[in-house]
Design a protein that fits this description.
Keywords: ATP-binding, Hydrolase, Nucleotide-binding, Protease, Repeat. This protein has 177 residues and is mainly alpha-helical. It contains 10 helices and no strands.
């Protein structure tokens, strides 16, 4: 599938891997694709920045949301993440729950990211009938990411004052230009 990716889309995938590594994630999650796209100079990044979802804003929203852990979901089942962290640090020392080191080498794609990349291809194949799109650019990667409807990505976009429908509209406008 990657042979259909433009250079910019390939850079997005590499940047997503670097984001995952920087966050000490064991897999490349959809949020890492969002972070990479927010820095992309191509169509996907341009659309994100046009609605205020630049890299710094996405990172800030991610920090406010608790990152990869969904504290609200844990609270719904009676788990207070702050109390768990405090108890672990009291017993084992500061940073006891933090992952040590950063993954080396290849980081695999999480299922949601795999689906996003597959949806990128589907997006290009569907749009091919309307225009002569043959390659997957960063706009198609963004469309694929939006199609997956990842809860963390959805929450971050909402915090930034946008949503998938608005971004899809912006992508359509960017394609027409």
């Amino acid at each position: 599938m990657f042979e259909r990716f433009t250079d910019e889309a390939r850079r997005v995938v590499v940047m997503a891997q670097e984001e995952a590594r920087e966050h000490r994630a064991e897999q490349i999650e959809p949020v890492h694709l969002l972070l990479a796209l927010s820095e992309d100079p191509g169509r996907g990044g341009t659309v994100l920045r046009a609605v205020g979802a630049d890299h710094a804003s996405v990172r800030s929203a991610m920090a406010r949301s608790g990152g990869d852990l969904d504290a609200d979901a844990l609270a719904a089942v009676g788990i207070d993440l702050d109390r768990v962290r405090a108890a672990a640090e009291a017993a084992f020392g500061p940073g006891a729950l933090d992952r040590s080191g950063s993954p080396a080498g290849h980081i695999p794609f999480a299922d949601g990211s795999k689906r996003a990349l597959e949806e990128s291809l589907r997006h290009v194949l569907r749009s091919r009938a309307r225009r002569r799109a043959r390659a997957i650019d960063s706009g198609a990667v963004l469309a694929g990411l939006l199609a997956v409807d990842d809860p963390l990505v959805t929450r971050l976009l909402r915090q930034l004052g946008t949503d998938a429908d608005r971004l899809r509209g912006q992508l359509g406008d960017a394609s027409a230009a």
